[in-house]
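Input/output pair, single chain:
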Amino acid sequence: MIRILIYIGVYYVFLFPLQAQNKQLLFNFREIPQQVMVNPGALIHQRGYVGVPFLSGVSAQFGSSGFNIYDLFADNGVNFNIKVQDVLYGLDRNDVVDVNEQWEILFGGFKGKGEANKNFYTFGIYQEFDLYNYWPEDLALLAYEGNANNVGRSYNLRDLNTQGEIFTTFHFGINRRVNKNLTYGARAKFYSSMIHLSSLRNSGTFITVPGTENIYSHNVIADMALNTSGYASLWDQDIDNAQELLRAIAPNSLFGGNYGLGLDLGFTYTPSSYWTYSASLTDIGMMWHMNDTESYTLKGAYNLEGIEFLFGEATDDDFLNQYWDDLKKELEEQLPLDTLSRNFASFRPVKFNGAVMYNFGNLNYRKTFECDCDIDDTGFENSVGLQLYAIKRPQHVNAALTAFYYRRIFNFLRGKVTYTVNPYTFTNIGLGISTHFANFNFYLLADNLLEYSNLAKANQAQVQFGFNYIFEGAR
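Output:
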């Protein structure tokens, strides 16, 4: 298990070394077709579009609220063990490492037939990797310090809180423009899980106290579980690196037997040409794991007051073997570690986006790209606003607040600048551009730009890019 987790982590962290899942630069960037993926009720002005397969949308995001790579590997003359100690004592159970990657395989959209039709339909397939892990504060301190100098301290086992998964999503959405003021939309999703590991809602304690029959008494009360799917069968395969792991789980993207359903909702309201309000809820859904499942549970209570041998018998092999057998049997009876094959469900992390935007500037600066695509019906050069993002995680809700400025620089070039405050950093400045040449759209979005001179010091980073073909004509 440890080897497989290391392969997954190393592959994604170093292949995409870039708060995760907050796409503040994409939200309300109206020239980019993929904006509809974060708000199915976004304003869509194109008649149709199709993404370049496998290149229409690639995003990679990484966030760590408690430390960065520089804290451990800086060439500053400080002993590595001291660095580890400083990082360890600087973290608490609310710190999180969060990694997300999305890769669009297929993406497209088209206006409904007939000039009076108010519907716009979107469809696509994307692969996603999502990992988050809360720092197991008490367990890490117990492993680092031991319990010899911590008699009477109770260690909380609920600090173990992690989930990682790789899955494929098939989606179909409808965007309906009711009138010039209101647009709303919805998207249905079908998930196919390739591999899933989660250990959530654990409870229990470990404590060492003075004993009555020996110097110390060690007491454990535990109710813990690790649920997996698409994982147990990997033990039978010879996997030596991350690429082999991905090849092994790839067939599960369609026929793995672990499926789920999801729903995205959103709207945009423009009471006047100056003001725009928009909001969305995405990934309201869950997965059912019924194939290749394996759960490991530790539930019970146990008390151990040290190990005591009888003099004269301590060197007797038969006595020692029997003693250890009895101790193991007693431990397994009181604190059994079971391996079960059982079905279970997991929930997707629901995400909220909401924004208010004020439009201003030259009203005559309106029309189109060379492809004659009417991509914006506000008629303004500039927009400023605020956006709130939140994602539901097991221990609490992670949130971020973004201030943004949007500008039409040229007919073929649009830009967006953001400043975001989130749990990882207070100096996150982002920049996004969208270009149009002929009928092709290319976009590039990146945040936390101040840290790009030395990514090792970054607590958070994000990059998105893609290519699309825009069909001529306005919606």
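The longest helix spans residues 317-334. The chain has one domain: 2-136+166-198+226-295+343-470.
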